[in-house]
Amino acid sequence: MSIDTEVAALRKVSLFSGIDETKLRLLAFISERMEFQDGEDLCVQGDVGDSAFIILRGEAAVIVDGEHVATVGEHAILGEIAILCDMPRTATLRAIGTTDVLTVSKENFLKLMKEFPEMSLEVMRVLAQRLEKTTRDLADAKSHS
Amino acid sequence: MEKSLFRFIWKNSAKYQVIILLITCLSYPVSFMLLDLPKQITNDAIQGSDFPREVLGFELDQIEYLTFLCVSFLLLVVVSNGIKLFLNVYKGRLGERMLRRLRFDLYQRVLRFRLPHFRKVSSGEIIPMITAEVEDVGGFIGEAIALPAYQGGMLVVQLGFIFLQDPLLGLAAISSYPIQAYIIPKLQRRVVLLSRDRVRNVRVISDKIGESIGGITEIHANDASAWHSADLSDRLYTNFRIRFEIYNRKYFIKFLNNFMNQLTPFFFYLIGGYLAIKGELSLGALLAVIAAYKDLAAPWKELLAYYQMTADVNVKYQTVVENFDPPDIYPLERITSDETVHLEGNLVMTNATFAGGASGQEVFGVSFKAEEGKTFCVVGSEGSGRSEVLQMAAGLLSPTAGKVQIGTQNLDQLSEATLGREIAYVGTSVHVWTGTIRDNLLYGLRHRPQEEPIADEVGQSELRRWKEEARATDNPEYRLDVNWINLERNNVSEVDELDARALEIIETLGLSRDLYRLGLQSVINPDHDAELVQRILDARHALAEKVQTDPKLRNLVELWDVNKFNASASLAENLFFAVPKDSTLKLEDVLKNKRVREFLQETGLEERLIEIGRQIAGIMIELFSDVSGDSELLDTYSFITQDELPEFERILRQMKQGKLPKKTREADRNRLITLAFRLVPSKHRLGVMDEYLEEELVKRRQEFRETVGTDNDIITFFDNDTYLPTLTIEDNLLFGRPRLDRRDARQRIDEVIRSLVMELGLRQPVRRAGLDYHVGVAGSRLSGYQRRMICLGRALMKAAPVTIIDDTVAGVTDEDKAIRQGVLEDLKGRTVVFGSASMAVAEEFNGYILLENGRVSSSG
């Protein structure tokens, strides 16, 4: 497993889509790659999150209030909001089988953004697009109701 | 202490000075003959006639006579230089001995200062006095008497010769002496004063530096670097000015002296010439006088130099010594006496008053009685005089009026041997000594050596010499390398048995858990405790068993397995499969070893490692070249520091062009290999490693071990049945690496180790190993709380009839209360005087007094 597969996985994350190759490689290098065994928790609902998870291999169950609500697989990014602001985890993530996860910590991500301001702009752009989409969706929903 | 340097010299070395003087005088005829003989050889033996000559009853012809004189000459050369050598060594030895005596005396005086005196002196000033400032005194002492005596003698002889030739010329020769004798001391006096200023100024500088180091956090926190820099710079300027002034005067004196000396021949030529012309003096006599005068210059110059040096050294001596003679210094017997009076009875303070001038809180007429075997509490807030009262009770501070007694003994009259052994004291500010925790706990039992030194044949003579030197310099004859620990106090027969007591005390003080943790982190010498080592190895095997059978644990650690690649360890560890024997070295440093180099070359690993290093360097440059130098990213994650980046860029560029310069080749290649060695595959997922290389490294491991052999002096190989002396107990137990790619692996495996240690009954031995934990400089590796507790433990260990504890576990919290109860329980049946700021605490004691503003305001 090398850094290249991790970079490929990061590239699929929309938040990072505009960031150039070398920065992504650096992000991958300073992120931790963790292995979780079947049944181990990546994070627990209610805890304050400080990292985002990108599943490189295997699957994880999304559990809300004890209920298994979804299963996520390879290349899924989870808890990305946590790397931008402090928020309690909205769900518990539990590994199904052996799962390899790339953990991007808030601290490291912010350090990178500080180092390369153009990265921040890219992230802002993505967030703005999302906001715009959400607003539009909300307006649609309102007009339909 | 002798106020003048010469009194000090004479008092302590009169005998040696006389010997030096005698030998110096003895060498004089030899030197004279040595000067005379060449003349005799040329005039008499070579150009002479009337052979054969009779010498000592033998008839010698010319050649034989020449040979005889030459051999005599050779003999005299040997004798003369032999005397010189002997004298120099003798003088040097005397100087060194006197220096040792002086330094020791000064240090002992520091030990004899009363406590309040230490508020007036700073270590920044005292240290250079004892070390650097007296250094010159040593070199001077050997010359102190012999040089003026010898050179003075020479001068008198030469002068006598001149006077014999002609009294008038003699007067002319010494005509400038009165002027010189008048002016030079006047000038020199000013130099002496300046020297004093200089010494004082340098002391202030050293004090300022010491203060800066002590208060470095404050300096940074207040942006006061500029202020301190300016302060020091100003002092340095003063120093420069003083020194420059000294130079000016010193060389002016030299100039004046030279000028005067050359003025005299002017009179010779004038007066002598006049007399010769008038026929009152023969020309030959005039020439002889002028020659004699030339010879006068040398001793005169020497004497002047000596005079200047004496003045200089004398100032140094005086400015040092005046600081070590406070009027209230304790008598020497107080610290050297070994007689202990057993203290029994009540501790009674009667009208004790302490007024230390500007230093500390004053105490007025305090009286109380702490009954023998009972507990007593002195309550008072900070500044109420509580600490002073307790220090008086411990005999550390002498009351200015009133008295402190235990039974019938007045504490002020007792020696340290009694006070320090019969009373245990823990003050408000405690000190932990550099050393192990055990050293610190047993510190209060280390009063005098408990046994005679044992020495073998060779050691005997060395020991005798050591003792002789100690006697010659008035130093104590206590050997450091014997046991100093007093065992009787704790009723044990061996030092090791004290450990049990020490652990008991640690338990009482609630430090067991801390000690256990320190124990796991401590590095022990496996030769000291073979049993413990065996038990650790057993525990290691049990842990390995547990790890292998429990699937949950198996995923947390990678054990050192000689047949398996360990992805959580560096490439160096994987290849060498060892740790360096010298714990200050890194494993990469073994590259410097020739055999290791050869092995890497022969197996072709070198090229592959360089290739890996090159790839790593390439990736690092690519990833980090845009990152700014002060970013933490670089420090935390990169293999290469900011400064090294351009270097590696150069290496890579040159490698690409295939022209790595010959000269730097080896060094550059090493840097790349070092880079490769640092790679930890599961942490740095750079994709430069593949399975083949992993297999290769594992395969080469065995070969490497065979090539280097287990008895080498650089590394110890990992071996499941060997204790690795440079690793901590914990690492020896685990014998592997927690996996880096598993979350919280370290904590989870620690938990497992803890329960296993508990299960196998290893806790106590590990704690015992914790006693060997090195506390760092003045306990810097311990927390403030731990330091205080260690000092409390030291007092308990002493098991003295009277224990005085000030401001330690003296609070009202449950934690303090519990420990306090434990301590009082431990001291049951002994007199305890306890200092606390809280009235609520006093209820736990048999009696109390409350202090306010240095006076007793209530008691019970």
Automatic annotation (TrEMBL), chain A:
Topology relative to the membrane: Multi-pass membrane protein
Primary location: membrane
Subcellular location: Membrane
Domain of life, source organism: Bacteria
Domain Cyclic nucleotide-binding as annotated: residue spans: 15-130
InterPro entries the record matches: CNG_cation_channel, cNMP-bd_CS, cNMP-bd_dom, cNMP-bd_dom_sf, RmlC-like_jellyroll
Keywords: Ion channel, Ion transport, Ligand-gated ion channel, Membrane, Transmembrane, Transmembrane helix, Transport
PROSITE patterns (UniProt xref): CNMP_BINDING_2, CNMP_BINDING_3
Entry keyword annotation includes Transmembrane helix: yes
Recorded GO MF terms: intracellularly cyclic nucleotide-activated monoatomic cation channel activity; protein-containing complex binding
Name of a matching Pfam family: cNMP_binding
Cellular component aspect of the GO annotation: membrane
Protein name listed in UniProt: Cyclic nucleotide-binding protein
Gene source species: Pseudovibrio exalbescens
Automatic annotation (TrEMBL), chain B:
Subcellular location: Cell membrane
SUPFAM superfamilies: ABC transporter transmembrane region, P-loop containing nucleoside triphosphate hydrolases
Keywords: ATP-binding, Membrane, Nucleotide-binding, Transmembrane, Transmembrane helix
Membrane disposition: Multi-pass membrane protein
One GO CC term, this protein: plasma membrane
Ranges in a coiled coil: none
Domain ABC transporter: 347-649
Positions of transmembrane segments: 16-35, 65-90, 266-293
Domain of life of the organism encoding this protein: Bacteria
Gene Ontology MF annotations: ABC-type oligopeptide transporter activity; ATP binding; ATP hydrolysis activity
Domain ABC transmembrane type-1: 39-312
This protein's name: ABC transporter ATP-binding protein
High-level lineage: Bacteria, Pseudomonadati, Pseudomonadota, Alphaproteobacteria, Hyphomicrobiales
